Amino acid sequence: MNARDSGPSGGKKGAYKPQSGEIPLRQDDAGRVTALDLPPGELSPEMTAYLAKCDEKLGFVPNVLRAYAHDDAKLATFAGLYNDLMLAPSGLSKLEREMIAVVVSATNRCFYCVSAHGAAVRQYSGDPVLGELLAINYRAADLSARHRAMLDFALKLTEQPWSVEEEDRERLRAAGFSDRDIWDVAAVASFFNMSNRMASAIDMRPNPEYHGQGR
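^ that's the sequence the OP posted. Answer follows.
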């Protein structure tokens, strides 16, 4: 979703030129985004340009951004945190962060995030099978010890956060993660637990483009 780095989700160029404060939409953006009837808000020039850049780079505006665009401050906060966690420099690769997103979202049965981030896993990894395995049962995937430890931790933080203890952090250290990396694993997993719950609460629907990407 970062307009500076479109990630793996390249696509056709959007032809639509938004007016000031307007969310870029095209004729092929049919269908609802959420179950809530929230009119688009007046967006700042920065957020208008951000959505237009997403449309240019990806070929569409991710529905999660359209959902948050009823309020400029909420959109800016969400986009800023997402871009920092998923795209900024980190000891975790972008693929690893997407892997966490898929496993957490699958555990929470979040249709939107499994669709969007499953597509990212397929494209970053070049392996469509991996995207499916992570969404269904990551334990069946041929994972490195590092990735198994990372996803085990993300799952535990999702299902039983109160039970995380030093032993769990030590398993990550033994797998090669620094303490800063452990922070990033936890931050990505925590963000998607929040995002999954919002998506489920408002019945956010994924863009149809996600379903065919990386196949």
